[in-house]
Amino acid sequence: MLICRVKIKIEGDKMKVINITSRTITIELVNNYPYYNDKDFNVYVNDLCFNENRNVFTIYDLNPNTEYNISILDKSVVVKTKNESACLYVKDFNAIGYGINDDTAKIQAAIMCCPEDGCVYINKGTYLVSSLFLKSNMTLYFEQGAKLLAKTDRMDYPIFPGLVDGYNFGVWEGSEVNNFASIINCVNVKNVDICGQGEIDCQAENGDWYINHRVMNIAWRGHAIFTNRSDNINFIGLYVHDTQSWAIHPYFSNKLSFINMRVENKPSMPTTDGIDPDCCFDVKILGCYFNVGDDCIAIKSGTIELAKKYKKSCSNLYISNNFMEQGHGGVVFGSESSGGVENVIVEKCIFKNTDRGLRIKTRRGRGNIGGINNVSFDNIIMDSVKTPFVINMYYNMGPAGGHTEYVWTTKKLPVDDRTPIIGKFRFSNMKCTNVEYAAGVFLGLPESKIEGLEFENVSFSYNNACEEGYPVMIEHNFTMKNIGLYCFNVENVSVKNVEFNGNIGDNIIEKDSE
């Protein structure tokens, strides 16, 4: 056994087991440090030991139906992995793994042969694939060094039809339309674990996915991972990168976990969000790292047409111990949010070098079937985030008339079923350093004001050497530099123990707000 001597103090409940599969166990330290513990620590697993520094970490390559004694200094817990009925190795199904020949059908054969509660084991190697479809009650496990390498020709991928006899399969930006299947697809399945220290390389730059990306080419772009109307799905430990569009798109699915994943896309890759929960319920995003070409996490609930049809919100999301580094926004709502977004907790996260921290994008025309409400941010560090908080009810990008006077006018218009609703937000125990454009920009509608903003124990310090820039995306835009909290059409702003250091002008600028 390795000799480990580092000692730490883990406060509160010390540690807790947050996920168990047949081959992994995930632990969370209960402390007050965002993402990282304040110092390295050692994890003992039976007679082995390894070093860690993150609050959420996963132990891999375990045996099914086996007890493990896990210790962190004086605290220990005995955990038993889930049972497996059988383990099917893709190499036994003639999957080559050299990254040259198409291994899609061979891996799919293993999946289709997998018995209930069985495991399909992807051995070390590089497997050239298009789309894989999982089924209920199975585990897909990636050995360390296993890579799925996506094919670059869009004609190699199946197409999800938007509607077939009333059944919805394809979706793009909140509308039921045709789109290409993803690399891993969970459609109408339940009880699936996808885990391991493997990689999904979509190599989208080597195809035509980014050419005229706002125009449909045969069908809309797919993703690395897509779930549609599926329940109790766990994704643990995968490295996903260079994706065709949004990397991970959970859609009309419930009880989902995304744990210790790493999602990376280059800044030049357009509309390549990290994880976009869409019309989902009970979603956990824990211990993940994001460095992407668009928003890190974007929460959605469809266009107004989809919302009228299903009346489905995206609700009960828990986002904790994540690191957002690079991206247009850290945690984003919309812009397709007509079904509503509610009950969102974001805590113990680090935002670094993102354009915004919290970002809400909506506009007239999104409707009032569901509002955005009951959102809290607590124990957050933001560093070099240009504008930590943005709520924009005049968002002008994307399809469906964002450039019309109806969207951009600041005149008070009649309230009808097209008028969006923004509710209450609470921000507490946050430190925002190297702010550039503004601490926050909140733009409500005169006929539908932002209901409430509450700030407690929040500090802002500024990068005075920055250039001025655009904090929001609206039709008649404006630049800012080193501004405090700018509130336009906000019902209530509550501030307690909030500090500003280095801003220009008033700490809080209120227009038609209270």
Describe this structure in words.
The protein has 514 residues and is mainly β. The chain has three helices and 42 strands. The strands form six sheets. It has a 27-stranded parallel beta sheet that branches. Strands 4-3-6-7 form a four-stranded antiparallel beta sheet, with no helix packed on it. Strands 12-19-22-25 form a four-stranded parallel beta sheet. β6 (67-72) and β7 (75-80) form a beta hairpin. The protein is globular. The protein starts with 14 loop residues before the first strand and ends with a strand.
Mean of residue pLDDT values: 94
Radius of gyration in whole Å, from Cα?
23 Å
Q: CATH architecture of the largest domain, please? A: 3 Solenoid
Class per helix and strand makeup: mainly beta
Give the C-level CATH assignment of the largest domain: Mainly Beta
Q: Outline the low-pLDDT stretches.
A: 1-12
Number of DSSP E strands: 42
CATH domain fold name of the largest domain = Pectate Lyase C-like
Shape: globular
What key attributes describe this structure?
514 residues; mainly beta; Immunoglobulin-like; Pectate Lyase C-like; 3 domains; 4-stranded antiparallel β-sheet; disordered N terminus
Which helices and strands appear, and what pairs or packs with what?
Layout: E1 15-20, E2 25-29, E3 36-45, E4 48-54, E5 56-59, E6 67-72, E7 75-80, E8 87-89, E9 98-102, H1 104-113, E10 118-122, E11 125-129, E12 132-133, E13 138-142, E14 146-150, E15 159-160, E16 163-164, E17 167-168, E18 179-180, E19 184-187, E20 190-196, E21 199-201, E22 225-228, E23 231-236, E24 239-241, E25 248-251, E26 254-259, E27 262-264, E28 281-286, E29 289-291, E30 297-299, H2 304-310, E31 314-320, E32 323-334, E33 341-347, E34 350-361, E35 372-383, E36 387-392, H3 405-408, E37 424-435, E38 438-443, E39 450-462, E40 483-488, E41 490-501, E42 508-511
Parallel strand pairs: 8-10, 9-11, 10-13, 11-14, 12-19, 13-20, 14-21, 19-22, 20-23, 21-24, 22-25, 23-26, 24-27, 26-28, 27-29, 28-31, 29-32, 30-32, 31-33, 32-34, 33-35, 34-35, 34-36, 35-37, 36-38, 37-39, 38-40, 39-41, 40-42
Antiparallel strand pairs: 1-2, 2-5, 3-4, 3-6, 6-7, 15-18, 16-17
